[in-house]
Design brief:
Layout (H helix, E strand, L loop, with lengths): L17 E2 L5 E2 L9 H8 L3 H13 L5
Antiparallel strand pairs: 1-2
Amino acid sequence: MRHLSIIPKDVFERGIIRMTEGGVVTMPDKDVWMTVEEIADMLFVQSAIVFRQIKHLYNKGIMG
């Protein structure tokens, strides 16, 4: 039996920000979605710090 999904495949595709060894940054033309861990890694902080800040922004009504 074949699995059929009603959710379009492109819903799960996400743009990726890339940087070459020379420091050239390329931005995708579509939305960029990042996990808490990816954001923490990018900012060189612990994921708990990112989570707390996202929660704070959400509670203030800035997100969501």
